[in-house]
Specification:
211 residues, 6 helices, alpha/beta, 7 strands, seven-stranded mixed sheet, Maf protein
């Protein structure tokens, strides 16, 4: 039985770190999704999953000459946060002032967080990759995260990559100082729900070991 590689359509360092911790072999591939034109009329969960699906449609698949087999497994994901009461979606900050505004809002309201994942099995047939199996899902969580005003500058000094995180919130390393509580999938908050992912990989025929 051949060990499979998960092709990850994401540049997220947090997702890569989670896959490293989970001992899941992966290789990063590019996608050209800019998230424009995605339908925003559905539910929050549907919107997040639509972004992950758009990434799946715009990935650059590997050449079959570079893969171990003519069957590959591809994963795309997206994570979004919104305030629990006022339902304001908190994406990545545009600048530091925007980041500070979102952090201040998070001190006032709990946040809902959803990670959407698209996992496809693709087979190389007649000179092209064809999707044979799919498993697309969302995983929710809620959290309270509050960076006190007198700690905001220190927070950005310690966590500069917060500028690339939804809501400018990072709950690892120094950011753990400001996590009041979290409910639901803890790894979904980091951007990749590992329990659900491993279950989906098993169901779709992904083999992690050679026997």
């Amino acid at each position: 039985m051949t060990k499979n590689i998960l092709y990850l359509g994401s540049q997220s360092k947090a997702r890569q770190k989670l896959l490293d911790l989970a001992k899941i072999s992966y290789q990063i591939i590019e996608h050209s999704s800019d998230e424009c034109g995605i339908d925003t009329t559905g539910s929050f969960n549907e919107y997040v999953l639509a972004i992950a699906r758009h990434k799946m449609k715009s990935i650059t698949l590997p050449s079959p000459e570079t893969t171990q087999s003519k069957t590959i497994f591809v994963l795309t994901a997206d994570t979004l946060m919104r305030t629990e009461k006022t339902k304001q979606i908190l994406g990545k900050p545009t600048d530091k002032n925007h980041a500070k505004q979102m952090l201040a809002l998070l001190c006032l309201e709990r946040a809902e967080l959803v990670t959407g994942c698209c996992l496809d099995q693709k087979n190389y047939i007649d000179t092209k990759w064809v999707t044979s199996k799919t498993n697309h899902w969302t995983t929710p969580a809620t959290l309270s995260f509050c960076v006190a005003t007198d700690m905001v500058d220190r927070y950005f000094e310690e966590m500069p990559h917060a500028m690339n995180a939804c809501g400018a919130g990072i709950i690892e390393d120094f950011g753990l100082n400001f996590l009041k509580d979290a409910h639901g999938s803890f790894t979904a908050i980091f951007g990749l729900p590992l329990f659900e992912l491993r279950t989906a990989l098993h169901a779709i025929g992904f083999f992690e070991q050679t026997s």
